[in-house]
Amino acid sequence: MNIRETAELWEEQYLSPYASLSRNTRGRDREEEPCDIRPAYQRDRDRILHSKSFRRLKHKTQVFLAPEGDHYRTRLTHTLEVAQIARTISRALRLNEDLTEAIALGHDLGHTPFGHSGERVLNEICQDGFAHYRQSVRVVEVLEKDGMGLNLTWEVRDGILNHRTSGHPSTLEGAVVRFSDKIAYINHDIDDAIRARILKEEELPGEYTDALGCSVRERLNTLIHDIIKTSMGQPKIAMSPGMEEAMQGLRAWMFAHVYTNPVAKAEDGRVAKLITELYDYYYIHLKELPAEYRRLMENGEKRERVVCDYIAGMSDIYAIDRFEELFVPKAWKV
Fold it and tell me: Which residue from 110, 109, 90 is spatially nearest to 100, judged by alpha carbons?
C-alpha cells in the first residue's frame, strides 16, 4: 500500500459519512495515472497553487481600486482568507479539507483586473457575456498550461462554478466554500472600508452587530461557530435562520454603503474606458495577442471569447501598462 492509498484509507475511517472521499471522485476529463503520494483532491490543490493565474491574483483588485497602502485586501489575500475559514469549518465537520481548500484557492481564478468593476465592463462588451465564476472554470479547464488546462477533478470544478450566492454545489465541501466566501468578503471589506475611512465600526446597523458582533474578529467567530453548530452531523451546510438573516442584511447594507460608495468607486469610469479600449484594440490586432491565445482561435475558439480571456487574465498593473503603451503619447527622443 503506497502513501496515497494509506491516506485514502484514513479518509474512509475518519471523515464524516457526508464527506467527499478522494477515491470516490467522478474523475478528470482526461484520465491520468494516480499519484503515489497525493490523493486526487490534494493533487488538484497543488496544481492550482502552482498555476500562473493564481499568482496573478496578488495584483488584482478586491474592492478598492489601486489603493495606496500595504494592508488593503487583494484578490489573493481574499482567496487565502476564504481558504482558511473554509478549512476551519471543514476540519470541525470532518469533511475533506483537501477538496475544500482546492475549491477555495481556485474560486476566483477567473476574476478580471479591477475586481467586479472590470467584470461588469467585460460582461457588457463581450457578445457571450462574462461572469467570473464561469471564467474560473474556463481557466482551469482550458487556459492554464498553454491551452491544456489543469485537468482537475469534477468535484473541484463543480465547487468553483457554484461558489456564487445563487450556486448549488454538489458537495458539502463546495457548500462550505460558498458560505466562507461571503463570510470573508463581508467582514474583510468592512475592515478595509474602516481603514479607508469610508465608515466607522459604530456606523454599522445595530440590528446586525447585536447578532453578529461588534468587530471583524467577533463576527468571524460568531458566523463560523454558527455554521459548525448548525451543520454538525447533518447532510447539508447551513446557518441558523436568524444568523443567516443578519449576515445577508449586513451584506445588503454593504452594497448600499460601501460597494457603491463614490470613494471606493471613484475610478470606475476610467476602468471602463481602459478595458473597453484594450478589448477594441486586441479585437482588431489579433496578431499582437500572445501565442497561446492565438492558438485557441486556430483551434476554433471565437475571437470575442479569446480577447476576453486575455483581458480577464491581466493583473491591474499589467492592464494599466498595456493601456499606457498603446494609447498614452511618449516623449520624443533623438
Answer: 90
> Rounded to an integer, what is the distance from CA 72 to the centroid of its chain?
17
pLDDT tens for 221-232 read: 999 999 999 999
- pLDDT exceeds 70 at position 42: yes
Each as own residue / partner, the long-range contacts of residues 32-38 (CB below 8 Å, 24 or more positions apart, any chain) are 32/151, 34/4, 35/4, 36/2, 36/3, 36/4, 37/2, 37/3, 37/4, 38/4, 38/7
3-state secondary structure of 153: strand
Q: Is the pLDDT of residue 53 over 90?
A: yes
3-state secondary structure 5-61: HHHHHHHHHHCCCCCCCHHHCCCECCCCCCCCCCCHHHHHHHHHHCCHHHHHHHHCE
User: Half-sphere exposure of 333 toward its Cβ, with a 13 Å CA cutoff?
Assistant: 2
**Average pLDDT, stretch 217-245?**
97
Using a 10 angstrom Cβ sphere, with 0-12 exposed, 13-18 middle and 19 or more buried, the burial of residue 130 is buried
What is the Cα–Cα distance from 113 to 271, expressed in whole angstroms? 9
Write out the three cell numbers for 57: 491574483
Write the pLDDT tens digit of every residue in 59-107.
998 776 655 666 788 899 999 999 999 999 999 999 999 999 999 999 9
Contact 297, 303 (CB under 8 A): yes
Cα–Cα distance measured from residue 28 to residue 102, given in angstroms and rounded to the nearest whole number: 14
Angle of helix 172-195 relative to helix 216-231, nearest 10 degrees, comes to: 170
Cα(153)–Cα(232) distance, rounded to whole angstroms?
Answer: 26
Q: Determine contact, residues 42/153, Cβ cutoff 8 Å.
A: no
